[in-house]
Design goal:
eleven-stranded antiparallel sheet, 11 strands, Multidrug-efflux Transporter 1 Regulator Bmrr, Chain A, globular, 16% helix, alpha+beta
Amino acid sequence: MSPAGVAGPPGMALLTHEPVVVTREAQLYVAVRRRVTLRTFGRIADRIPEVLGWLAERGVAPAGPPFLRYLVIDMDRELEVEAGVPVAQPVEGDDDVLAGVLPAGRYVTLTQVGHPDALVAVTGVLLDAAHHRGLVWDSEPTPAGERWGCRLESYLTDPREEPDMNRWRVELAFRLADA
């Protein structure tokens, strides 16, 4: 693994730190959920602005950066993913937008600076680092794919302020199983 602050192989994003374990409190959020493939992934990722607009229409400010939450992953077939935004107070959903709670617990986190296309490689770094440290994920195999208790990509950069995707900051946070 590249040391923090050093670019990895070509196409790899800059990592701002080594993976670290942090404890997070439960977090309220709203989101839309879809089943997508890698080819149709934009059908969920492109809905983040819609969720932000939905909140704005209701006068609710985000309580953190927007995220993608991976619920079920089968890279060869289908993924179940939410495009969400944290909120400070409970918000009632509607026919398309759901309200939920990101679970409290211990998470392994890693932040990258670079194009979101590099996230697959960065995710590999995170998964490998945790494996080598003997950490166990809050996940389980199912017939539909690997079901995760909480696996997040939080988009720390506002694209309206920084349109260059090569300069975006994205934090990965994957929940660990209870010890």
